[in-house]
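My convention is simple: the sequence line spells out the residues, with the fold written below as integer tokens. I include a record here:
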Amino acid sequence: MIRATGHLRTALWLAEIGLPVLPLREGKLPFGNCRSCTRSACGDRPNMKAAGPCQCPAPCHAWAAATTDPAVLTSAAWAGAWRQAQAVAYHPGGAGLTVVDLDNPDAVAWARQNLPATKTVATTRGEHWIYRGAMGSANGVRPGVDLKSTMVYARWRGPGAGPMAALPDAVRALVVKHPTPAGPALSAAVPAPAGGGECPHRAPAYLERGIAMAEQRIFAADSAIHHTVYRTFLAVLSVHGRCGCLNEDDIDRLFTAAQTKGESLRHCMAAWENARMRLGV
């Protein structure tokens, strides 16, 4: 058992109040899987009901490793991660919560006009609005708005202010009624097609379904993870790569799914670039 200092001390306090937690490394990313879990050698099955889909003692499988067990958090297997940790994250869905991530002032203004008041936490660029109740997570449900609940992690930014309200239908409805038309802004670190032509996908939900199916395909892979990730990236780009409808959040979801299964960021970027080159996009 290791001595609790810094981020670990915060994590233990959060675990005590019922939030499943995990360490984040530089770039707000989870720590990569250990050798036993890389490429799903452990036969993992990530799911929202269990914190840790295999018996690995290390903080593997990203959000699925989040735990409230102080013995796990202070174990020797987690010690190296805490020494390198740059932040603490928690699994909102595992605690029965949903975080409405408002990424800019316009999104915050929209929430104040359209959503019930609840516990609010300031972030670097906007606010997190936290509700009691879990739901499926989704990125880009409208400009600057992501929903973080099941099968994702959210960075801990402090206790916030105000009483926490129950998850309203207005938030649940965002996934169905108000998907965000994909924007063209893409991370320079992740090459992606520039598009330029008219997008043929008249229903924005079509892209959301495609990304969700791609995530599930990666999560379900039992072997040949490199191949599965590459073929999944190829499939997404073959449908959405020429019209420029993929945005930064979509790509981040694909990379996060791949890294949850043990792929390194380097392998993700290589697979993405190889898929682009093959398709000529």
Notes: The two ends are 51 Å apart (CA to CA). The first helix runs from residue 6 to 16. The beta strands are 21-25, 29-30, 87-90, 97-102, 119-122, 127-132, 138-142, 145-148, 154-155, 165-166. The CA atoms of residues 64 and 195 lie 35 Å apart.
